[in-house]
Amino acid sequence: MPRQLIKGNEALVKGAILGGCRAFYGYPITPANELTEAAAYYLPQAGGVFVQAESEVAAINMVFGAAAAGVRAMTASSGPGISLMSEGISYLAGAELPCVVVNIMRGGPGLGNIAPEQGDYFQAVKGGGHGNYRCLVLAPATAQEMCDLAKLAFELADRYRNPVMIVADGYTGQMMEPVDFYSTAAAAPRRPEWAVCGTAETRKNLITSIYLQPDELERHVRKLAAKYREAEERETRWENYRTEDADLIFVGYGIVARVLKSVVELLRERGIRAGLLRPVTLYPFPAREIRRLVPQAALFFVVEMSTGQMVEDVRLAVEGERPVEFYGRCGGNVPSVEEVYEHVVNWIDGRAAEAVREVASHA
Amino acid sequence: MPEIAVPAHMKPIHAKAECLYDTYFRKGENPHQTHYCPGCGHGVALKLLAEAIDELGIADRVIVVSPVGCSVFLYYYFDTGNVQVAHGRAPAAATGLKRANPEAIVIAYQGDGDLAAIGSAEILHAANRGEPITCIFVNNAIYGMTGGQMAPTTPLGGRTTTTPFGRAAHNDGYPLHVSEVLAALDGPAYIERVALGNVKQILGARRAIRKALETQMKGLGFSLVEVLSPCPTIWKMDPVEAQRRVREEMTKLYPLGVKCDRTAERQPLPAPAPAPPLEELPRILQIPEEEPAAAWAKAEGAVDCRIRVAGFGGQGVLLLGQLLAEAGMDYGLEVSWLPSYGPEMRSGTSNCHVRLSSKPIDSPLVSQPHVLIALNEPSLRKFVGAVQPGGVVLYNGTEIPADARRGDVAMYALPFFEIADREGSAKAGNLVALGALLEAVPLLPAEVVDRAMARVIRSEKWLELDRRALKRGREALRALKNEPAKEPCHA
After folding, report:
1. For chain B, which terminus, N or C, has the lower number of CB atoms within 10 Å?
2. Both B251 and B311 in a single domain?
3. Whole-number Å distance between alpha carbons of A238 and A218
4. SS3 assignment, position A361
5. CA-CA-CA-CA dihedral for B149, B222, A40, A92, to nearest 10
6. SS3 A266
């Protein structure tokens, strides 16, 4: 099939439009601007709507309006903008509206910088906004996945009537790689029966997130929780890379996972049986797959571009049965293959020396 | 019970509007009465809005957007499409709804805290875009549902729970005149302030609300009616006294009248273009149809080439890298191109990582390149140490600085930009460098690179110049080279 060399950010927009997206409300922020600019260019030609909002707060509420009308709608931003959108994302989840929110993560907290980081894992996976809700969270690692997961995100958002987040880092968004856009057919826009469209057929419909009576709200929140449990059963996605015989298992996502594949190869050249588990969905998290690997694993090594966020979910999954080590870079620094390799080798050598000392002291 | 026919002359004078539910089934307790206090202006404003909807026959098309505050429960009452939204965000949500349903009549019904405080940005920009929605702005100069805090519209001296000593300008600022502020914009089609202080005023409000909806129906743009409204409960007045206050005090602070009316000169907004058929999407999205590499030879043998291109912003560093990646893709290789991006500002450095490989590319980061193209001295010094032994360095200059030389890599210095300048433009220096690279490292066939150039460089004039520049680069490198090319990239 024909391939196009294209930036991840632009591939995501094309994938979204092929996935039926017809509304994009955005606000400029580096490093997510290519998304907004591509949407401004392509969507009006594709029969869709693009508006540059006055703020991220307005953008997510415009998405709320479009989603309430049953249109596949999205927005994209980076950390500081996602913080502003968090209110709206909570309302979307509460009102059971599907939408896609893209976070091309940059360095934080505060203004931080515009270099790549993975410091928004907690924000994406554990909440961000208020109340008992979750976002389904997808983490692409290639330009091809930026396209494919954008399509998937809209399917999941509709299936669960819930916001879906795509989190990538600045590099995955800015990087150009060949993309095949024909892996699936284009999805036709549709209006679900619950939408509010200003028509006689939809006149009785109500979109709301308010439930004044405690019993009513509890019923609603438990319904949301049941959806999330179902998503955990059905939607968890991950990639195994050389884990079949691995006893040192790396866990990393996005750009880090690509670095880790090279590290796995280098370690294997040295005779260390290393492998990689790459979560593709950060929520639902592939905890069960990690559990499956526990018996064969001697050690889990989590690498992130943060001071340690996803590592908490790995530790929860491992339940203390194996050591879980962590290596992180932040501030916009992307770990190099050589650096991670060296760190892991030093760690293993240190452990070996420690073991020798221990044996000696017991003797 | 048998139906009793009511003669026309006996139709009740006071009846509920048809677009209001008879029983407020969504309300739960007391489904026959609203949640509004006795004497509250909301009841009147709602009734006027509902009657206008009935009269215009648009109930099927209406979407009422209820935000937060005393406006929150409009969906209890209106037998229309209903969307409940966050505090202050009704104009933004209404924008999304209207853009999705251009035929719908979208009404944002907001109070003063909602619209004039927390939602001030959303209303200002919706008005400024001329968003074809209608806002009913109920101004009672107080936060009602939260129990009587200061609103942006509270008069100076007004005692509220958060201005217990009276609103003071030095601490709390001045009452906000929303309609006048919005009327100063070019976007709105119709803005009027009305009041509910007596029957005459109420009749005026009724006319204004109807006109605002008609403005939307005609597609003329943004319309807003500010309704000065009593809040007897929080004002701690009886309904009659509260109405007197609206009539005699509020209208002094907030003068009634049309603040802007461009409905006569405005042309209706153009209808949105029909959506193209799905089959058109690949063309619209500029997705290539044919297999680009079909006509070309594929790379043979294992390739793994890691290239770093570095220089100043404006030297064409990124394009040079992109051309390598494009040609590599056409040659059937896996490729990645990763820019190190920075803020768009003066004197930034620019560099990119390019990988061409016969296997899927794991890390796109090139920390130890086989090939370094350094377009300035700082870039040479920064990256030369990382080049793999046996690799190639191409440097923009007449000679490699003595302290940046390495014996274990092939190093070539050529003044790329001077060579390009002699061809017509120094801007093509990056293509001279590419030509030199292709001569130093026989990585990609010339015709594959030329085809990629023709695809990426859209201007005929530049393509022609760039082709010459590439050729000069090849020639210059060939002249410089006194030993056969090393092939560091072919494992």
Report:
1. N
2. no
3. 32
4. helix
5. 40
6. helix
Residues of B whose CB is below 8 A from A4? 287-288
Task: Map tokens 């030879």 to a residue.
Answer: B297
**Considering only CB atoms, which chain B residues are within 8 Å of A5?**
322, 325-326, 329, 335, 337
If you classify domain A240-362 with CATH, what class do you get? Answer: alpha beta
| Tokens (6 digits) for A242 | 């050389």
Question: Domain boundary at B210, B237, B261, which?
Answer: B261
User: Comparing C-alpha atoms, which of B127, B262, A84, B117 is closest to residue B108?
Assistant: B127
Q: Does B146 touch chain A (CB under 8 A)?
A: no
- Domain count across chain B: 2
Terminal CA-CA length for chain B: 95
Every domain of chain A and the residues it spans: 4-234, 240-362
Check A198 against B61: CB less than 8 A apart. yes
In a domain, B332, yes or no: yes
SS3 state at B431: helix
Instruction: Give yes or no on whether A4-234 and A240-362 have one common fold.
Output: yes
Tokens of A72: 């596949």
CATH classification at residue B245: 3.40.50.970
pTM reported for the whole predicted model: 0.94
Q: Evaluate whether B320 touches B438 at the Cβ level (below 8 Å).
A: no
Segment B20-34, tens digit of pLDDT: 999 999 998 899 999
Q: How many CB pairs under 8 A join A and B?
A: 235
Q: Please write the tens of the pLDDT for every residue from A226-281.
A: 999 999 999 999 999 999 999 999 999 999 999 999 999 999 999 999 999 999 99
Q: Residue B109 and residue B218: Cα distance in Å, rounded?
A: 20
**Do A129 and A172 meet the contact criterion of CB atoms below 8 Å apart?**
no
Residue B24 resides in a domain = yes
- Those residues whose C-beta lies under 8 Å from the C-beta of residue B138, and which sit 6 or more positions away, are B41, B42, B45, B70, B71, B109, B110, B111, B112, B227, B229
Percent of chain B with pLDDT over 90: 86
The reply to whether B233 and B378 lie within a common domain is: no
Among candidates A348, A229, A251, which has minimal Cα distance to A308? A251
For residues B459 and B382, membership in a common domain is answered with: yes
Distance from CA of A298 to the nearest CA of B (A): 24
Last residue in a domain, options B226, B261, B296: B261
* DSSP assignment of A190-228: ---TT---SSSTTTT-EE-----SHHHHHHHHHHHHHHH
CA gap A164, A158 in Å, rounded = 9
A5–B93 C-beta distance less than 8 A = no
- In angstroms, what separates the C-alpha of B35 from chain A's closest C-alpha? 13
Domain extent for B468? 304-480
Check CB contact under 8 Å for A2 and B122: no
Contact map slice: B 85-104 vs A, CB within 8 A:
85-86, 89, 92-101, 103-104
Is residue B341 in a domain?
yes
CB contact under 8 Å between A25 and B28, yes or no, is no
Task: Say which CATH superfamily domain A4-234 falls into.
Answer: Thiamin diphosphate (ThDP)-binding fold, Pyr/PP domains (3.40.50.970)
Asked if the C-beta of B490 comes within 8 angstroms of chain A's C-beta atoms, the answer is: no
Contacts of A338 in chain B (CB under 8 A): 367-368
Q: What is the CATH number of the domain that holds B358?
A: 3.40.920.10
Q: Do B225 and B347 belong together in one domain? A: no
Question: What would the two tokens of residue B48 be?
Answer: 């006027």
Helices marked H in B218-347? 232-235, 239-245, 251-253, 281-284, 317-330
ipTM here? 0.95
Residues comprising chain A, all counted:
363
Is B23 part of a structural domain of the chain?
Answer: yes
Our CA angle for B143, B91, B19, nearest 5°, is 85
Residue of chain B whose Cα is closest to the Cα of A15: B285
Confidence of residue B173 (pLDDT cuts 50, 70, 90): very high
B contacts of A206 (beta carbons < 8 Å): 26, 75, 82-84
